[in-house]
Design brief:
Blueprint lengths: L9 H5 L17 H18 L16 E2 L6 E2 L11 E2 H5 L6 H14 L1 H4 E2 L2 E2 L2 E3 L4 E2 L5 H15 L2 H7 L2 H14 L2
Antiparallel strand pairs: 1-2, 3-6, 4-5, 6-7
């Protein structure tokens, strides 16, 4: 994680729904929280630069990650091979702990400006692709759940605190520290 363009954002979300990245460091990074923030910022910067010139990308419209696409389920990422113009709301919104201002900007845009198309009875639709004139017909719980959990982690840290309070997690962290010689 964290090398090159960072990959799909789900790596920074699903891996850290319960596990607090503030408490993890290893030979790959001094801080997984900062690493995850950087991956989200790379994703957003890529969408702002918009090298493939897709419609709708910008500072308030970003979030390349795994989702429904016009051609089926795929893992979009900020790179030449994996960017197909589909933005997934969970990409930006589940990044709240890492990019609160940018995520709030995206939330406001997705709800206020595009809400008529992107929001429905079950909340946000999974994804959209303005270049293809496509909006996902589905509400994917797999992608909505990280939004809820990560917004709460941003707000209060509740999920992180409760998960990290498990004795097994603390034992694992101690074992990792001893194996690293800390």
């Amino acid at each position: 994680m964290g090398a090159g363009p960072g990959g799909p954002l789900f790596f920074t979300h699903y891996s850290f729904l319960g596990f607090d990245p503030h408490q993890l460091r290893d030979r790959y990074t001094a801080s997984y929280f900062e690493n995850n923030r950087n991956i989200a910022l790379i994703n957003r910067a890529y969408c702002i630069a918009n090298p493939r010139h897709y419609k709708g990308y910008g500072p308030d419209a970003w979030g390349l990650t795994a989702s429904d696409t016009p051609k089926g389920y795929a893992a979009s990422a900020p790179d030449e091979n994996d960017d197909h113009g589909t933005m997934t709301l969970t990409g930006a919104l589940a990044s709240f702990p890492y990019t609160r201002e940018a995520s709030m900007q995206a939330l406001k845009h997705y709800y206020r400006d595009l809400g008529q198309d992107l929001w429905g009875i079950y909340g946000p639709r999974d994804a959209y692709n303005p270049t293809a004139g496509w909006v996902s017909a589905i509400y994917m719980g797999l992608n909505q759940a990280p939004i809820v959990v990560m917004v709460e982690n941003y707000r209060t840290g509740l999920v992180w605190k409760n998960f990290m309070a498990n004795p097994e997690i603390q034992q694992m962290l101690k074992k990792l520290d001893s194996e690293r010689g800390n």
